[in-house]
Amino acid sequence: MLLRLPFLALPVLLSGASFAASSNTKVEFNRDIRPVLAAKCYACHGPDEDKREADLRLDVRAEAVKEAIKPGKPDDSEFWHRITTADPDDVMPPPSSPKQLTKAERELFRRWIAEGAEYQNHWAFEPIKRPTVPISKNTNPIDAFIENDLAKHDLKPATKADPITLIRRVFLDLTGLPPTSSDLSVTSDWSDDKYATLVDRLLASPNFGERWARHWLDMARYADSSGFLGDGLRPNAYRYRDWVIDAINRDLSFDQFTIEQIAGDLLPNPTREQIAATGFHRNAALNTEAGLDKEEARFQNLADRVNTTGRVWMGLTVGCAQCHTHKYDPITIRDYYSFYAFFDNTVDQDEPNTKAPALAEVTKDRRQTYVHMAGDYTRRGPDVIPAGLSALPPMSKRAQPEPSRLDLAKWLVSPQHPLTSRVAVNQIWSKLFGTGLVSTPDDFGTTGEPPSHPELLDWLASEFMRQGWSRKQLIKLIVTSATYKLSSVHRDDIVIVDPLNRLLSRQNRLRLDAEILRDSALAVSGLLKPTIGGPSFRPPLPEDVFDVGRSSNWKASPGNEIYRRSLYIITLRSVLYPTLSTFDAPDAADACVRRERSNTPLQALTMMNDGVFVEAAQLLALRVLYQSPAEAPKRLQKLFRLVLNREPRAEELSRLRAFHSEQKTRVQNGGAEALKTLGTHEKAVQHSEAVEAATLVATARVILNLDEFINRQ
User: Fold this and answer.
1) 576-616 confidence digits (pLDDT tens)
2) In the chain, what are the domain boundaries?
3) pTM greater than the 0.90 cutoff
4) Torsion from C-alpha of 189, 195, 197, 203, nearest 10 degrees
5) Other beta carbons less than 10 A from residue 633's beta carbon
6) Contact 85/91 with Cβ under 8 angstroms?
7) How far is CA 387 from CA 335, 404, 413, in A?
């Protein structure tokens, strides 16, 4: 029975699954061996020459086979001896290491060596090749790949989600708002064509840009203030946010979306919008305190730009090479500062007409970039010039003396780049299934999880580029697949084979993002103000929020501004809006590529008692009171439909009626005190309807707390 009291179902576990080689299949380096080496061996025997022990390098076959590994002969291999010996002075990893090998991992190593100890290039650095779509009765290639992999594990896809569940799902995923009653009228004579038409309508909705802008703004570490102790206000930061909304709504191709944010100011005759797009790297926290070392602050700010670009566009932990060569991935410290050089001659400069925060390139007295030894801004090593990562394809030949940020941007979105389209596709997929095909979206390196469906990932990456890098076309392809439309109901038959549902034999059930919870409550109550864009607003906040920090002169925005979508709530780094933080909204300190989903008692208390949810329940109750017949069952049915988008089942309506009756008795016995649940609306309600109105408020608060409202099915 779905009607049950609080509260939050446990979130889907967002973790990759490795389907290791069975005893009768060949061991594969990328699937079975590299992840273990990366997690437990590379820190001491990997790319970082400064930290390498015993001059042994296990990430390169030519080095490994010199002394440690004898292909085809595990018993003659020093590597095998070291991982199996009982001698604490010889065993590897050493007893002090927290990352010990399991018995199964040792056996995999033995089989691998016996089979020839073959290596493979890391999958993410290999060129993107368009795989052949498996033969299938399904017309959507996504389903062909998914069902092909399911068949390998003797699994079948779940049944289709019912039309109302699917409509609610696609509304929340594409617009971040629940459907209205009129939106659900299309369920009569439901068909794939009707669904496709609905998807087109949602993609064309201005709300689409708002919802998907929020995903990008997480990665852009967007905020309306500078952070640190002073936390100075950035009154025009919203212009970058509005550029993102507009770019997504007009389906600006992802390659151009990339170019304008990294180097819009370097385009020929750039528009003011293209200049505003470079605000991507003006979003970071900025220390402006008196007495700070300005050169150190500048160094840290530019390092943030390097690290963020690496995480967001390439899915790499580039920042690990800031002080030394990366311990796991082929990124040297020289690579890091060659990348840093692209930003070393930029200055913060607001766009002249709108004052939008933007970047500009220094033309005179340009700096020479150096390797900063051990990541110390005062220690200069060798000179470097701007360059991409040496493990990736080189940039195209340039006309100017050295590459510019525009060259960097074009390199990132070139068809030869093996990471950008894979990373972008994975990010989009993760928003529609709760986790990506690669479950570590900001780590496509050797310590990240391998893709659950590598052929599908590469097919989507190639298709994304083939379709002109269109975000909307890619999303339509995904949400019209049979895989997306599957039921999310739990299945006992996959618990052993695929407990994390990485093979996608069903959809995933997901707790709504913080902003969508608030927006949904405002929407169903009729309070939501739909204005798109413009300056951020300040919601009401309790006074004790300001016991810490300097922002004590808070004044809530006037009128119905406080009922705008959560996307427009002002983000002050020192005063984060508690309601959103409680539900895991990021703090804008760093690029947030994947939000966490926690489940805490504080979340239940917030849904029951936070002012915005209480007021939503009050207005929802009055909406039902005035828009439905006076009979209690009719009102309860209306209330249920508004919140959950479906009719209550007989047993649910029965329980609602019993609860409504209990609450009515409580309100009647409570007198004037009980009517205070109506808040500021108490005087607006006729005396004869006051008891029923207060009863409906209590009932509305319960329904708004059902996990069916709080989760996307």
Assistant:
1) 999 999 999 999 999 999 999 999 999 999 999 999 999 99
2) 29-120, 253-412, 523-597, 611-712
3) yes
4) 150
5) 15
6) yes
7) 7, 9, 15
